[in-house]
Design goal:
Length: 570
């Protein structure tokens, strides 16, 4: 789960739909965290923190540090360091535990419960650090400042969550207890003394044999922590291979790009309008900037990002960053196809020709965003198989019809290929989400369906002969050859051109319920282009307030170049 903002983001349309829209933000206070003992002494302690350090703010019922450069994974790492510092200073033995959460966990023998609470109080006598005492159901019973933790040395608890809450300067992203480090109290199994019991399940189970608990080092975020030897293994469900991200991107308001496109259209007998006039109708809403922010915030395990373009580079992109590379169409088409091309099907059919691209990669449209912390296992299995996310929408049976959308025609062409090779008829399309892909599967498609892919690559505009490789054909062919399997992902979709759909944005920001979401515009709605621009200009920086390390001059970018940005794994 993602700890979300304490803010409620509200869009208000003012005046008739044909008028420019005005947008405001309404900030409301969140409830005080569960179990907080807000007596007079506690309140006085919080007030002293705020008076002593004017950079601190109160948000979500707690005293928070304001951030401009940390991601949720950074905060989870920082909270682990807080807990480890306190335990090490007090000489309390502990070891790092692996589970499936984004936040980190350490184990301490239950005999040290009181010592742990005293250690936290001693280590943080005047800082904005909180502790939550947990029961066996992982429910917080008591939340208090770390400086007052020793008041609860006689409280029975199965663990303690340690965290320093933070909030973005916009107030729209708050990272609190969800990212706190869990100090879990392990104990001997009375019935089988050769086993230790964890109060909660870990990646090697809840009962761990004493004999397997040999000490070993682990390094996270550049810091060494003690762990036990089984946690250092590559486990069955781990995803141990590198994963890249690939975007296809175009700035449709670029006059030079439009002039090149007009020349191609004119050569094909298509009537065009002046490029400058046409450019005025296009909006560059900076979706790519925010999609890259979403990866930096919520998927730091992405190795490299490849941006496939036609002689265009976003002005804000740090092209010196070693983890991002702009790839021109000429690099991936080589002697194949026809350039320049304005056919997304053609471009997507050549993505696996990117030099240096990992075998496993995620394909993003720039209107798709990671929405909360996600793990590689959401997209790939440990054996290398890619996952695909099928939609409930059916592709109509029968041949392509006049008037069919090109995407639907391509899906029907895919169906003919799959049916001819495997004897099964595909029915469904796939949801608007990142597409987990494998280079080897796409290379095999070129071998098995050479004419279909060659013809698609030659089509400069979408054509009834196209196939859709990255968004569909790969998944079906991979499934039938044992390299792609059905997966599950929570994906949101908002058509920002429809006023009824725009209302969903409030819920997305307030509760952050999805793994990913897509913001699309079918150009057939009742929301004007100006209103759509204003909507995204308010929503995107509210959801993704931390500028990524890929944006020139951002705080994270400067930290990266100074060598002060932690590397994955965190």
């Amino acid at each position: 789960a993602c700890s979300h903002s304490s803010s409620v983001w509200a869009i208000h349309r003012i005046g008739p739909s044909s008028s420019p829209a005005c947008f405001t933000q309404r900030i409301t206070a969140s409830a005080v965290p569960q179990g907080t003992a807000r007596d007079r002494a506690f309140k006085a302690a919080e007030e002293r923190l705020l008076e002593r350090d004017r950079t601190l703010v109160r948000d979500g019922g707690q005293v928070c540090r304001v951030i401009d450069a940390e991601s949720p994974f950074d905060i989870a790492q920082a909270n682990l360091a807080l807990a480890a510092d306190a335990l090490e200073a007090a000489g309390v033995p502990y070891f790092l535990v692996r589970d499936t959460k984004i936040r980190h966990s350490v184990a301490v023998h239950a005999d040290y419960r009181g010592a742990v609470l005293k250690a936290l109080a001693d280590r943080f006598p005047d800082g904005p650090v909180y502790v939550g005492l947990l029961n066996d159901a992982d429910t917080t019973m008591v939340t208090t400042l770390a400086q007052r933790a020793a008041d609860h040395v006689h409280t029975e608890c199965s663990g303690v969550r340690v965290y320093a809450p933070v909030v973005s300067a916009t107030g729209t992203l708050r990272l609190g207890a969800t990212y706190g480090c869990l100090i879990s109290f392990w104990y001997h199994d009375e019935e089988e003394p050769d086993f230790f019991l964890s109060p909660r399940r870990t990646l090697i189970g809840q009962r761990v044999p004493r004999a397997s608990m040999r000490r070993a080092p682990a390094v996270l975020g550049g810091r060494a922590y003690p762990t036990v030897e089984p946690y250092t293994h590559t486990l069955h469900h781990d995803v141990p291979f590198p994963i890249d991200a690939v975007y296809t991107w175009v700035d449709g308001s670029d006059v030079d790009w439009l002039e090149r496109k007009n020349a191609v259209l004119a050569s094909m007998g298509v009537v065009t309008e002046d490029a400058a006039t046409s450019a005025a109708r296009f909006r560059n809403r900076d979706e790519l900037r925010y999609s890259l922010r979403s990866l930096d915030m919520y998927a730091p395990w992405i190795r490299n990002v490849y941006l496939v373009t036609d002689r265009q580079v976003p002005p804000w992109l740090d092209t010196r960053h070693p983890r991002v590379r702009v790839v021109d169409h000429t690099e991936i088409f080589g002697d194949e196809g026809a350039l320049p091309t304005y056919n997304s099907h053609a471009i997507e059919s050549r993505l696996h020709h990117i030099d240096g691209l990992a075998e496993h990669f995620l394909y993003f449209n720039d209107d798709v965003f990671a929405a909360r912390p996600i793990q590689p296992s959401l997209f790939f299995l440990g054996n290398g198989a890619a996952k695909h996310f099928m939609s409930s929408n059916a592709i109509p049976m029968g041949p392509a019809l006049e008037g069919d959308e090109f995407s639907r025609i391509a899906a029907k062409n895919n169906r003919a290929l799959i049916s001819g090779m495997f004897g099964q008829t595909l029915v469904n399309s796939f949801i608007h989400a990142p597409h987990p892909l494998r280079r080897s599967v796409m290379a095999d498609l070129e071998t098995h369906f050479p004419e279909a892919l060659r013809r698609t690559a030659r089509n400069r505009l979408r054509d009834p002969s196209d196939v859709s490789v990255a968004s569909s054909l790969h998944h079906y062919f991979g499934y039938h050859t044992g390299r792609s399997v059905p997966g599950r992902i929570s994906s949101g979709f908002v058509n920002v051109g429809l006023s009824e759909q725009v209302k969903k944005l409030n819920g997305l920001l307030a509760t952050r319920p999805h793994d990913v979401f897509c913001l699309n515009d079918f150009h057939d709605g009742d929301v004007s282009e100006d209103e759509q621009d204003a909507t995204l200009a308010a929503f995107l920086p509210s959801y993704f307030p931390i500028a990524s390390q890929f944006e020139t001059g951002s705080p994270r970018n400067e930290r990266f170049h100074a060598g002060r940005l932690p590397a994955w794994p965190l």
